[in-house]
Design goal:
Elements lengths: L1 E4 L4 H12 L3 E6 L2 H11 L7 E6 L5 H10 L9 E4 L17 H23 L4 E5 L23 H25 L5 E5 L4 E2 L2 H9 L2 H14 L1 E2 H4 L1 H8 L8 E6 L4 E6 L9 H15 L6
Parallel strand pairs: 1-2, 1-4, 2-3, 4-5, 5-6, 6-9, 7-8
Antiparallel strand pairs: 9-10
Helix pairs in contact: 3-4, 4-5, 4-10, 5-10, 6-7
Length: 294
Amino acid sequence: MVVITGANSGLGFESARVLAHRGAHVVLTCRSEEKGRRALEAIRPEQPQASLELMVLDLASLASIRGFAGAFSPADDRLDILMNNAGVMAIPPARTADGFEMQLGVNHLGHFALTAALFPLLERTPGARVVTLSSLLHRRGRMDLEDPFFERRPYRPWQSYAQSKLANLLFTLELDRRLRRRATRTMALAAHPGYAATELQRRGPELRGSSVGVVVMRLANALFAQPAAHGVWPQLRAATDPGAQGGDFFGPSRLGQSRGPAVRVQRAPEARDQDLARRLWEVSEKLTGARFEG
């Protein structure tokens, strides 16, 4: 049983397609039911026997996350892989339904709350994995716990994105520490896709109304990016490699980790800060009300 957030396009769609082909029952979660159904229709002709399910989930709403968790009831009472894949990148200032800055709210806090809601099921499943998608740009991130939503400092879209991707790695670090302390077989891992061509790159310019930005992003993707079908390799390795260990971080192996086969890669120093990870966890609990209980 696999749950993938943001599974209607890009890396989430490719993950769903590959894992379904390998025999997993895959739950595609999507904010838009219409887009989710199109994703199902795209996979089924290739794999008529695929075991697929669609559920609506909006990570920008804690109510939607709670509703999803309440409705999610796998037939065999197990969840082998939770792939925290969905995200937004370098968008104009926006807020979630709960008042969080959108990029940190969706990329980190939404997945934090979702993982907490599904944690009892994950912990009951021997060898379950939580795979959270980060980015190369986590290296540029600075985690400001005094002003995480850019209420006192100027909002910069790429700075906000980098902070959220750093938060993904700090979340994985602290979740791995807590899982080890509980002596459970559940593992927390992370991955990044390098530079993969997806809808994320053009979404920011579209929201800003910049047709030039959209063209530039499309051109950059065409010239420099690897296809999403290759960018997905690190998160698939994190999800399935029998030799993976809790806390592992996977990324591409070539051209400065921008493309190529998936290997274990290093985090930036701030993403290895245990005290910062613990404090971010505590802030995330307060903001979302989520608790990790077995």
